[in-house]
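Q: I'm building a small set of examples for a reading group on sequence design. Run inverse folding on the following structure and report the sequence directly after it, with nothing in between.
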């Protein structure tokens, strides 16, 4: 690396440290925005390393705060696009990087990332505010056009993302996420690594979108998994005998028949039809908490093939 470039980077790092000290003294962090600033440089560096950022990559960061993680991302990436909702943090970011070689590589988007259109990017890295964890994951997975995401969440939320069938925390979030992506746990982060410390520990996960996506109707999939995981410890036979499920699927069946000009037999009994499908698939005494996504897809295919739908 040329001497001049080294000196500029050293100056930028010194300015960043000075800014961090001033920030610690002057800013009251807003818990409504889930602001817990990651202050351990070793954890910051580990997160960046796990992302495998290339010099040609555009990185999207959510909630950069005072820029501790942002600074390390700027060292590696071609460009960093940072979404920040708090105007005070936006001002601190600009102050921290103004006059440094990194400012030309940093684009700050002021606003709510959930309500904003995502830019084109290769890698997403974020210390996620807990309030937006679930909607952000699904927005990210539906965006799809990225190589990987390395995201820090509250520990239990992260565990739900990568939980496997039979695990205590396995849930609809687990199934939905793993339908569209590979999810792996990469790092535990104790609460004392933050300022102010949150009430619980955190975990970092790496998410890689699956290509190609499963060729299914996602509204149907969502309807099925919503029913199955509402009572995940019950057998499927018990779930599909419940009054609310029978009423919902009967209504959907009638709508389907009406739209497709199909006559509903006078002796039609949806309860018996569903039980026959469960027996055919050998799922009558199976419980949702033990089922894999392949089994959910098999069940959905058999229901749909028999004109039973989970969206009206």
């Amino acid at each position: 690396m040329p001497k001049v470039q080294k000196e500029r980077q050293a100056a930028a790092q010194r300015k960043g440290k000075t800014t961090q000290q001033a920030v610690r003294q002057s800013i009251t962090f807003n818990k409504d925005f889930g602001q817990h600033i990651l202050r351990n440089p070793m954890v910051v560096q580990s997160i960046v390393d796990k992302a495998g950022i290339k010099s040609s990559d555009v990185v999207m960061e959510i909630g950069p705060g005072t820029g501790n993680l942002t600074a390390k991302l700027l060292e590696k990436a071609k460009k960093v696009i940072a979404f920040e909702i708090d105007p005070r943090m936006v001002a601190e970011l600009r102050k921290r990087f103004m006059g440094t070689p990194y400012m030309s590589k940093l684009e700050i988007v002021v606003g709510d990332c959930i309500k904003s259109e995502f830019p084109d990017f290769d890698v997403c890295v974020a210390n996620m505010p807990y309030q937006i964890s679930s909607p952000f994951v699904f927005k990210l997975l539906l965006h799809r056009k990225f190589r990987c995401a390395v995201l820090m969440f509250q520990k239990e939320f992260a565990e739900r993302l990568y939980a496997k069938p039979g695990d205590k925390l396995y849930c609809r979030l687990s199934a939905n996420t793993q339908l569209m992506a590979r999810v792996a746990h990469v790092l535990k982060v104790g609460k004392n690594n933050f300022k102010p410390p949150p009430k619980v520990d955190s975990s970092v996960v790496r998410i890689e979108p699956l290509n190609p996506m499963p060729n299914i109707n996602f509204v149907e999939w969502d309807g099925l998994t919503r029913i199955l995981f509402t009572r995940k410890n019950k057998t499927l036979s018990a779930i599909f005998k419940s009054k609310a499920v029978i009423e919902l699927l009967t209504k959907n069946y009638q709508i389907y028949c009406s739209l497709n000009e199909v006559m509903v037999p006078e002796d039609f009994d949806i309860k018996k039809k569903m039980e026959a499908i469960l027996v055919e698939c050998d799922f009558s005494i199976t419980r949702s908490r033990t089922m894999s996504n392949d089994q959910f897809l098999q069940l959905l295919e058999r229901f749909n093939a028999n004109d039973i739908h989970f969206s009206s």
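Residues 18-25 have pLDDT under 50 and may be disordered.
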